[in-house]
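Lab notebook, bench 4. Still working through the backlog of constructs that have no structural model yet. Next entry is a single chain of 189 residues. Request: give me the structure tokens for it.
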Amino acid sequence: MPPPYPTNSAIFSSSSLPDILGFPPLKKSEPLNLYESLRSYFVLKFSESLAKSVEGLLEMLHKLRNEMLRDELSLPFRRDRLILYFKCLCMIEPFFPMDASPNPPIFVWYNAINPQQHSSQHNIHLEKASVLFNLGALCTRLALSCDLTPIHGRRLATDALNDASSWFSLLSTFESCNAPLTCHNTTSI
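Model written out:
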């Protein structure tokens, strides 16, 4: 009796690769006005003049987060925007937790596998962990979308998979332990 799996190199052919890896689902999030909550925090904690001096960063954060939620954007554009958003999150991380703020942002993310479950926290590490997960998933999708026939396509796919591995590694090494996940089931039993 033959084994139930392919035993030759056909497993790595361009037509079977997407079937093996599948398209990893992306985490979804609720819209959030980061600009308002962060600006009010800067005014309360520091001063109006400091809040004005960081308005550009706050507006960029808000814009990048909104773009992150748009499914119709191309994969490379979404990846690039997520990378920039992650860098901006790293810049504002020292201001969290925002205990003194009357209106701290609540980050809500839905489970990628089971969208009925979601987590919501004031913790910026939940946001960073979810962004890293989506970066890994998007890079995997980019790799799967490459034409593997020419050598250039295989190199692009390899680079994208290496990038995905790096994002998932950052997620598991740094953010997963800092974002205690509290899952909420939105279905009624």
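Notes after review: The longest helix spans residues 151-175. Residues 1-20 have pLDDT under 50 and may be disordered. Flag for follow-up if needed.
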